[in-house]
UniProtKB/TrEMBL annotation:
It holds the Pfam family Las1. Signal peptide: none annotated. InterPro entries: Las1. One of its GO terms (biological process) is maturation of LSU-rRNA. The lineage of its organism: Eukaryota, Fungi, Dikarya, Ascomycota, Saccharomycotina. It comes from the Eukaryota. One of its GO terms (molecular function) is endonuclease activity. This is LANO_0G04808g1_1. One of its GO terms (cellular component) is Las1 complex.
Length: 460
């Protein structure tokens, strides 16, 4: 069983790639300047086949142009050509793989999704189509920022994340576990959800549609010159894209304290937010996994202690509806299977009713997957079915009953002060557990009784 699909790489050990990052960024690690050795190593790797990731290759190209400039032995025009070509290949290599629709998406939209400075697209357009090349000062600044972007999003990013097929953390920024979450920023972003939900209600697949290319791709409308829009005018797709970028920023800022973001999101959640739930799960990395983890942990906390943020928000029937929507709209069965190691560990640690719903939903949708996918992930699917059978035998309907009667601070079962019948949620849960144990079959052993004398039935 594996977490990611294997792929061929030109290095033998991960330590080789870590050493290369030290060579390319001596100012980050305080190591000696070995950038030229780093460029030579990437050239060596390139000779082994087309296996060098674009991010590694672009780092070498940009660094090589910078080293040529620092030597001071080349005139301005060759330097401009070197810098411009390195930037064009850097931008194109990042954005072109995302053009997978029938119509071309504007490059500035793709750059916004990836957190790439939009003026990189303008620079690429100028170097490709314009008569005059960008100035040397502008190219130097762009190269420095591109190298910083690669450091933040590839070389120094968390390894468990993926970005468009490369095993590297390019989707979010690195953050320390003790980073402080700005609750006001999260609240400000979540206040935009109702309007976005209304927007998706009229066209639920709006976020899946692709827009026709703008002048960023060098194309013009054959019917005539483009009509300039007013600055205040914003079409629904641009509005939706701006919302996604804002949500991603809030998600990044909550790294290390994701529960704060998720709790605030669930406290505001409404049943008609299904489109927003699906949008966030597909556009924000690990949102579906972290949301499922938060619900599982809080549900189990409710069963143990009678109180949790989840119980404060949803009662039993509401929770059933929310879990159904999460399984239907926030979970992708193919992504779960491809990341099954992490999902399996989480589900095994929380064998409750919600885990059963997640596994059942994933198993039902995997039955309709194509044969190639099922053969490739045969071991994971078999383990999923085994986990499903285990949950069916150990998870009982009393889970929901115990969750439903669990007391919450202010909404707990209260009796007038001084009454001898005052009770609490913990006592109710203990009584229910005793009843559950009493209902289990008991075995009795025959034991000898001293001085036993037979008596007719009915006599004492």
């Amino acid at each position: 069983m594996r977490e990611y699909e294997p792929r061929v790489v030109p290095w033998r050990f991960k330590s080789d790639l870590d050493e290369l990052s030290v060579w390319f960024y001596p100012n980050k690690s305080g190591a000696p300047d070995m950038r030229r050795e780093g460029v030579a190593r990437v050239k060596c790797w390139s000779s082994r086949g087309p296996y060098v990731p674009h991010t590694v290759e672009s780092t070498a190209h940009l660094t090589d142009a910078k080293l040529t400039d620092e030597q001071g032995i080349t005139s301005d025009i060759p330097l401009q050509l070197s810098y411009t070509m390195a930037m064009i290949r850097f931008v194109n290599g990042l954005l072109d793989p995302t053009q997978q629709s029938q119509f071309a998406i504007p490059l500035h939209v793709l750059a916004e999704r990836m957190g790439l400075p939009s003026w990189f697209v303008e620079l690429r357009h100028c170097g490709t189509h314009e008569r005059e090349m960008p100035s040397l000062e502008m190219l130097r600044m762009a190269t420095d920022q591109a190298l910083d972007w690669l450091w933040d999003n590839y070389w120094n990013a968390e390894p468990e994340q993926e970005f468009y097929g490369e095993s590297a953390g390019l989707d979010s920024e690195r953050a320390t576990p003790d980073s402080v979450v700005d609750s006001q920023d999260i609240d400000r972003v979540l206040r935009k959800i109702p309007s976005i939900s209304n927007l998706l209600a009229s066209n639920r697949d709006l976020w899946k549609l692709q827009r026709v290319s703008s002048t960023f791709t060098g194309e013009q409308d054959a019917r005539g010159p483009p009509i300039k829009k007013s600055k205040k005018e914003e079409n629904p797709e641009e509005r939706l894209e701006r919302f996604v970028v804002t949500m991603k920023d809030a998600w990044k800022s909550s790294r290390g304290q994701r529960d704060v973001f998720l709790e605030k999101f669930m406290r505001k959640y409404r049943s008609h937010w299904r489109g927003v739930l699906e949008l966030l799960a597909h556009r924000i990395h690990s949102f579906g996994f972290d949301l499922s983890r938060w619900i599982l942990e809080n549900y189990e906390l409710t069963l143990k202690s009678g109180q949790s943020p989840l119980r404060e928000i949803f009662d039993g029937p509401q929770l059933q509806k929310v879990v159904s929507q999460v399984c239907e709209h926030a979970l992708d069965e193919k992504k779960m299977i491809m990341d099954w190691t992490r999902w399996c560990e989480m589900l095994r640690n929380h064998p409750n009713w919600i885990a059963l719903q997640i596994v059942e939903s994933c198993d039902a949708r995997n039955s309709s997957a194509n044969e190639k996918f099922r053969k490739r992930h045969h071991d994971e699917i078999r383990e999923l079915k085994g986990l499903l059978q285990r949950f069916k035998t150990c998870v009982t309907s009393s889970d929901l009953t115990m969750y439903q009667i669990a007391s919450v601070t202010k909404n707990s079962i209260e009796v007038s002060r001084g009454s001898p019948f005052q009770t609490s949620a913990n006592e109710i849960l203990q009584d229910l557990q005793k009843l559950k144990q009493a209902a289990e079959p008991k075995s009795f052993k025959w034991e000898p009784v001293p001085q036993w004398t037979p008596r007719p039935f009915g006599q004492v």
